[in-house]
């Protein structure tokens, strides 16, 4: 508890994840209110993720509207319920593509665009080195 409080007090950015249900939303808003009091004057960007949202457009819209009425987040990322994630949990494997991965990629781009760019540069350099090694073997 003390470590979490210290992290909130010094955080540069906060990502809060809540379950995409009425109970999950209520708990998330309550937690955000507590966290907001601890964070540095409310100047820290808060990115909110609602996970396992219902597929029904009406229910999803109700949850989003209620959240936006209660809290003004820097960004709101909606993660649909993805069967690939449930399979990966049981299999102990990674989720490589699908709605969950797409949503997480968009969130990462919002939170850490520089880190994403650096990762892309690193992979591009690796690809170029591998291509150069392959070309030198062929010649």
Order of helices and strands: HEHEHEHHH
Mean pLDDT over the full residue set: 84
Structural class: alpha/beta
What fraction strand? 5-15%
- Number of beta strands: 3
Question: Any idea what the shape is?
Answer: globular
What does the model show?
This protein has 139 residues and is α/β, with parallel strands linked by helices. It has 6 helices and 3 strands; from the N terminus they run αβαβαβααα.
Topology:
Blueprint: H1 2-10, E1 14-19, H2 22-38, E2 46-53, H3 57-70, E3 75-80, H4 83-91, H5 99-111, H6 113-138
Parallel strand pairs: 1-2, 2-3
In short:
The chain is α/β, with parallel strands linked by helices and 139 residues long. It contains 6 helices and 3 strands.
What characteristics describe this protein?
alpha/beta; three-stranded parallel beta sheet; 139 residues; 6 helices
């Amino acid at each position: 508890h003390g470590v979490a409080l210290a992290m909130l007090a010094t955080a540069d950015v906060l990502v809060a994840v809540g379950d995409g249900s009425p109970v999950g939303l209520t708990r998330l808003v309550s937690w955000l209110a507590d966290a907001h009091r601890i964070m540095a004057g409310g100047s820290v960007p808060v990115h909110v993720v609602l996970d396992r949202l219902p597929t029904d457009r009406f229910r999803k819209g109700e949850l989003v509207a209620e959240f936006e009425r209660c809290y003004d987040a820097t960004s709101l990322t909606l993660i649909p319920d993805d069967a690939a994630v449930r399979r990966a949990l049981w299999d102990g494997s990674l989720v490589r593509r699908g709605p969950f991965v797409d949503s997480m990629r968009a969130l990462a781009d919002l939170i850490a665009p520089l880190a994403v760019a650096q990762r892309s540069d690193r992979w591009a350099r690796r690809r170029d080195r591998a291509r150069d090694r392959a070309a030198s073997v062929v010649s």
